[in-house]
Amino acid sequence: MLRSLVGSEMCIRDRAAAHPTEAPLPPMHWKLQDKAREAGLFNFFLPEVCGLSNLEYAPIQEILGACPEANQAMNCMAPDTGNMEVLAKYGNDHQKKQWLEPLLAGKIRSAFAMTEPGVASSDATNISTRIERHGDEYVINGHKWYISGAIRPECKVFVLLGKSSDSGPRHKQHSMILVPRDAAGVDILRPLALFGHEHDHAEIIFKNVRVPATNMLLGEGRGFEIAQGRLGPGRIHHCMRTIGQAETALGAIVHRVKNRTAFGSVLASKETILERIAEARMELTMCRALCYNCLLYTSDAADEEDSVDLGGRRIIKKKK
Fold first, then answer.
1. Can you state the percent helix, strand and coil of the chain, rounding each to 5?
2. Where are the beta strands (DSSP E) in 172-215?
3. Contact (Cβ atoms closer than 8 angstroms) between residue 101 and residue 121
4. Most CB within 10 Å of its CB: which of 120, 130, 204, 228?
5. What is the pLDDT of residues 265-320, one digit of tens each?
6. What backbone phi and psi angles, to 5 degrees, belong to 187?
């Protein structure tokens, strides 16, 4: 059912559609979303909702990776999946009611505001956007960029990582807070380009943005704790989607070499080409196996083990 729905109706990349930075999602998106929901193919990524473990979800992500539009129709698209996981695991009842419920229903979208132009954001301890407590509010000041999804009109909330303290351990100086996209002081400057193509990645200024103190996630200084809970499953999701795209590319290559003739014979009869295809197949199979291996050893079933063999390295685990 999943493959049939994805292949027959959700691969719309070749059809005309408005540029995502200029227009809301087309009406066809909402029709496909309704169809996916009716078929029970919705919110696969969240175990608390769908009942699937990350290991069981991995092959589904490979299928969806081959057709990115299916991720949106089935409400399994980044960055919303990670943000919904954050709200489900660390949000309070009010935050879940206000933001998680409409996100799970696919009615709104979200963005994760972390990366900054002024620092090497791959080291998140460098993040310098300020989150300061003023009475019953937090005031946010900072400059973010390449914030995926923020350009889209459906985006209604940011999960923002910022610095809330200058003292204490380095990994307890940052916090995550919910910032409505339409809050006063949020200035979305422009869409940013990747490889020359503008998409929905935004450059944003936060100037004296005030949000209620209740928008803080989990508590001050808990940003890195939340980030690890968010990034763990997300890394595997991205890997499996990429494997799905690679499988599509490999399938296209195989089709071409079977149907293309050069120098008197089909390309599929040429030894060098067969060698390259074989190498690609082995590497893809290896990558898939490594992802499954990682998921196996990070699943609940492995929690009781003292150590695990991960990619050929022995990892000693702390007992609970």
1. 45, 25, 30
2. 174-180, 186-194, 197-212
3. no
4. 204
5. 999 999 999 999 999 999 999 999 999 988 887 765 444 445 445 444 444 444 44
6. -120, 105
